[in-house]
Amino acid sequence: MPQGRIWTRIAKLAGTLAVVGVIAAPAMAQQVAAPAAVKAAPAPVAEAAPGPNSGAVKIDLSLDYVTQYIFRGVMQQDEGLILQPNAKLTFALYESDGMVQSLDWYMGLWSSFHSDQSDYVATTTEAWYEADLYTGVKVALPSNFAADLSYIVYTYPNGAADTIQEADLSLSYNDADLMSGFGLPALNPYVLFAFELRDENGSEDIYNEVGIAPSMTVLEGETYPVTLTFPVKLGLSLDGYYDNDSDFGYLSFGPDFSVPIAFIPPEFGAWKAHAGVVMVWADEMAQNLSVTGASQDDFEVLGTVGVSMSY
Predict the structure, then answer these.
(1) How many separate helices (H) and strands (E) can be counted in the chain?
(2) Is the pLDDT of residue 32 over 60?
(3) How far apart are the C-alpha atoms of 236 and 243, rounded to whole Å?
(4) Would you give the end-to-end CA distance of the chain in angstroms?
(5) Is residue 281 within 8 Å of residue 299, measured between CB atoms?
(6) C-alpha angle with apex 181: 177 to 184, nearest 5 degrees?
(7) How much is the pLDDT for 22?
(8) Up-side HSE of residue 115: CA atoms within 13 Å toward CB?
(9) Rounded CA gap, 259 and 71, in Å?
(10) Cα–Cα dist 64/135, whole Å
(11) What is the CA radius of gyration of the chain?
């Protein structure tokens, strides 16, 4: 890797880590005494005070900045400003004590905007690299299991790639009750199967992902508690997803710190800020799949900073 790019990435990561410190600072300031050790609790995700929205429609908005955009182990962009907004509507349709305990329908739009165009085709919407339309249903099942079936259309407004249509099935388990018996945080394990229904760039392949996302409160506070989440993802190919004979695609992991933005009144929703670092170890074939001309090494480190709102 050229020395100039190395120093550029170090500078980006240093900026991200600085934001982590800014996020943690309010909670540190209100501590009477520093905790002797990190508290291991069963996934106590910090929640803001309840807002006025008691209806069946929920709104989620978020905006993230990432130093590099890597999707399922494949580098999409490694230079310039990368902003990724998301908007999601969720409708609570059904609730009971039976086999299906709740049924939610959701829809949304996720995008990625890049200031640097690398080597891909630029049009009048050249900064709008990706726009993903999605919809799905999430079903809560007995014994803390849940299933999520979604349909996603990956589009590329600036012409970087052709449209991909995909059906995803995700199964998850909330193991907070189980892990609390051992005094450990919940792992929140899940497995994802992604089936390409139509890929205008090539063949229709199958992707598989397994992961965990343990979470714990690392700094207590009535107003600004800091939560640490440590997602770990393993990306695999079930049928030609990485264009090679190997099932392994990538492994990613890293800490993410979040804190409520408590000074915003709850009638405007529950706001949260986060910052983290993600480390990605990718297979050699995954590195060669980028359609944007972005370069990728065996091991990449990226930073992320963002803000979200739920109402």
Answers:
(1) 3, 17
(2) no
(3) 12
(4) 44
(5) yes
(6) 85
(7) 39
(8) 9
(9) 26
(10) 21
(11) 20
Nearest partner of 308 among 29, 45, 71, 13, judged by Cα: 45
Q: What is the reported pLDDT for 122?
A: 59
Provide the pLDDT for residue 295.
75
Q: Is the pLDDT of residue 166 over 90?
A: yes
What's the CA angle centered on 89, arms 83 and 90, to 5 degrees? 135
Contact by Cβ (8 Å): 177, 145:
no
Q: Which residue has the tokens 């690398």?
A: 118
Residue 221: both structure tokens together: 């506070």
Instruction: Name the region of 260 (left: φ>0; alpha: ψ -120 to 50; beta: rest).
Output: beta
Assigned token pair, 258: 């979040």
Burial label for 257, CB within 10 Å (0-12, 13-18, 19+), is buried
pLDDT at 3 over 60: no
Alpha helices in 182-310 (DSSP H): 284-287
8 A C-beta contact, residue 241 and residue 205? yes
Indicate the SS3 state at residue 286.
helix
User: If 0-12 CB within 10 Å is exposed, 13-18 middle and 19+ buried, where does residue 196 land?
Assistant: buried
Q: Say what the pLDDT of residue 16 is.
A: 47
What pLDDT, on a 0 to 100 scale, did the predictor assign at position 257?
98
CB 104 within 8 A of CB 138: yes
Q: Which residue has the tokens 């915003």?
A: 264
As a CATH number, domain 3-310 is 2.40.230
